[in-house]
Amino acid sequence: VSAEWNREAEIKFNTAIVHSLSIPTQWDESNGVYLGFDGHVHTKPDYMEHIYTDLSIWDIFRTQIPFIIFHDSQRANDIIHSIMLNVEQGGDLPKWPFANIYTNCMIGSHADIM
Which residues does the UniProt record annotate as the domain Glycosyl hydrolase family (predicted)? Predict the structure, then answer.
């Protein structure tokens, strides 16, 4: 695919990408520790670069997640593994994890698809 961009369109496009990637939130500290869904401090697994939270799963599973899968596979893997850590530490698939809690503010279970 090729496209000709004027400078203004390129700035808008790049700004939109940056804004779209500001969520989900990186949840781990610089030393790899994070507060889990069980309320305990954990150290992220070695196979992950970061732990992510603040996943508006209903809003992102058809749009942002496919974009991340194609453009940043490590981040995509970390997001999916973060969801699985939510299950391991909290006992259920999250609907809309916020920080280290379940908000349960969405219907359905869109994390199943991810």
Answer: 6-114
User: Sign of dihedral through CA atoms 73, 75, 77, 83?
Assistant: negative
Q: Look up residue 63 and give its two tokens.
A: 């749009």
pLDDT at 41: 98
Model pLDDT for residues 17-54, shown as the tens digit of each residue:
888 888 888 999 999 999 999 999 999 999 999 999 98
> For the domain bounded by 24-112, which CATH number is listed?
1.20.1050
Joined tokens for residue 44: 């992220």
The rounded mean pLDDT for the chain is 86
81 Cβ contact partners less than 8 Å away, ≥ 6 residues apart: 45, 47, 48
Residues in contact with 36: Cβ distance below 8 Å, sequence separation at least 6, in sequence order: 42, 85, 89, 90, 100
User: Is it true that the peptide bond before 24 is cis, omega within 30 degrees of 0?
Assistant: yes
Which class for 111: exposed (0-12), middle (13-18), buried (19 or more C-beta within 10 A)?
buried
> Residue 34 corresponds to which tokens in the numbers above?
């994070």
